[in-house]
User: Which sequence fits this backbone?
């Protein structure tokens, strides 16, 4: 079981950091957001450029997570027929070469640009820059009581699992253990280290190394 401490001082400065950095990021990245939205619309004109999905936040509270759309418009309807191709154990669902991903979607995912709209979630307070990734409600419905402990804190854009090499090969139980480890370790120093490591992992992946 995770050793959970409320840490009010840390939470205050973490939220202050999230608000400040997310606001500045939204201002600076707004031209990129516009360009990507136009490209998604032009390249795959069916549907909206943004994808909105219900996720579970702190204490299981539902919120809308924002991403650039990288899949065909009927991706959710096709998910059931693809479950036998799932490459993750446990409740999570991932396919490395998911046939639902569009051509421009592959580019956005490879560069992690598809995740950038979640900065708006961070500004609103639904998410933080660092924390366990927000799960889907149907995944949480299959969680054990131990797995549910990852919902004790605000979900984030990056975490220990996110910066792990070959993270999709990590067993579900180990993924959950990494999230519980973050809950116990969490501090501003840990968060800053994870942010820098995330930048390194993204750049390394982009270089093909």
Assistant:
């Amino acid at each position: 079981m995770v050793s959970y401490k409320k840490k009010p001082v840390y939470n205050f400065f973490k939220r202050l950091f999230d608000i400040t950095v997310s606001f500045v990021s939204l201002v600076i990245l707004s031209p990129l957001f516009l360009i990507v939205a136009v490209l998604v619309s032009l390249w795959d004109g069916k549907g909206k450029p943004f994808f909105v999905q219900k996720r579970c936040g702190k204490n299981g509270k539902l919120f809308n997570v924002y991403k650039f759309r990288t899949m065909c418009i009927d991706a959710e309807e096709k998910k059931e027929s693809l479950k036998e191709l799932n490459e993750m154990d446990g409740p999570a669902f991932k396919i490395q070469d998911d046939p639902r991903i569009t051509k421009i979607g592959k580019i956005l995912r490879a560069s992690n640009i598809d995740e950038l709209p979640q900065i708006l979630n961070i500004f609103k307070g639904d998410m933080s820059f660092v924390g366990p990734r927000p799960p889907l409600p149907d995944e949480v419905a299959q969680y054990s009581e131990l797995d549910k402990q990852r919902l004790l804190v605000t979900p984030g854009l990056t975490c220990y699992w996110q910066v792990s090499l070959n993270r999709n090969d990590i067993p579900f139980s180990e993924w959950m253990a990494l999230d519980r480890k973050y809950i116990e370790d969490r501090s501003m120093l840990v968060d800053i280290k994870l942010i820098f490591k995330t930048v390194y992992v993204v750049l390394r992946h982009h270089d093909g190394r």
Q: What stands out?
A: The longest strand covers residues 50-56.
